[in-house]
Amino acid sequence: xxxxxxxxxxxxxxxxxxxxxxxxxxxxxxxxxxxxxxxxxxxxxxxxxxxxxxxxxxxxxxxxxxxxxxxxxxxxxxxxxxxxxxxxxxxxxxxxxxxxxxxxxxxxxxxxxxxxxxxxxxxxxxxxxxxxxxxxxxxxxxxxxxxxxxxxxxxxxxxxxxxxxxxxxxxxxxxxxxxxxxxxxxxxxxxxxxxxxxxxxxxxxxxxxxxxxxxxxxxxxxxxxxxxxxxxxxxxxxxx
Length: 240
Description:
The chain has five helices and ten strands, in the order βαβαβββαβαβαβββ. The chain is an alpha/beta fold. α3 (125-134) links the parallel β5 and β6 (137-140). The protein is globular, with a radius of gyration of 18 Å.
């Protein structure tokens, strides 16, 4: 059977109580697990890493600039491809077009990445023009809400992305899970409980998904990590 989208691994570092943000990231216990998290990430040999806009604004902030746009919504809906030859891509879901980039080519952890932004057709033509000017590739996937399956198909057919590492935002992770777009869950637990209610978790419900339902998993592997961490590897049952 031919698969018309990338193989998608959701790879997440969380506290024992499922938080993916908070003070625990600065603690020694998390720092001792983080190298293992990185080694597992690299072992998947993914062509691209995907983040939501909120997460991307934090981790790629040095590659961004201030900006604003005005103007009508785009009426031609033409996509822009600045590069299909990158060794690795930074894919960002920015449905409403809120992030402004200095360049379409960025660097993280010593790796050069080309930025691909996933947008809805409702973004303004002025915003699309700014992406083109910066050399940022973008694809359009539906008007509202975002059509994730379509976006994933375009990542494969246009950019040749075969393996994608998903590292949301809890809302982004949940949206992918509900759409049946997670093939494998790689969850690294730091030996800390965060406890806060005001931070994102591994999966967070979205107001865009009125018909969301629980998803069951089958355990594929489990391994104790250095620093009292734990790696849990699951396959969603809808993928079995």
